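[agent] plan:
  1. take the single chain provided in the ticket
  2. run structure prediction with default settings
  3. attach structure tokens to the ticket
  4. add a short note for the reviewer (M.T.)
[agent] executing step 1
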Amino acid sequence: MNLLRILQVSSSGLTAERTRLQTTTQNIANAHTTRTEDGGPYMRKMPVFEAREVAGAEFGDVLGAKLEAPVVMDVVEDTRDAELVYDPSHPDADPETGLVAMPNVNVVEEMVDMMTASRAYEANVTAMSATKNMALKALEIGR
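[agent] step 2 finished; step 3 output follows
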């Protein structure tokens, strides 16, 4: 088992979760943005992950499983429609109906995403620390 490959997977996981946290933060910050450069309300963004096999990384004989590193392939817009809210005094309200197209961001959902991303980030840090400790213990054996 190659400890560097394990570190590669954890490092890739840290990068992916950082992107997820940044995207979630951007969504929360724009939860009330009704006008963007494109003209409509802000649309929620989501990272798309993919597991990439780490070259030649057999992880023991545990069911022949391979080490896979998470990678952010793209950040896409959520396809849910914007929420229409009645507020005729809003500057972006439709003059005839008084409806405002609000972003499709649910702050509670974003907070859950933020918590799970944070926990996944912590798990990757723990895996890296454990790998480092194993390497140090292996070096001590050689003394």
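[agent] step 4 note for reviewer: Residues 107-141 form the longest helix (35 residues).
[agent] ticket updated
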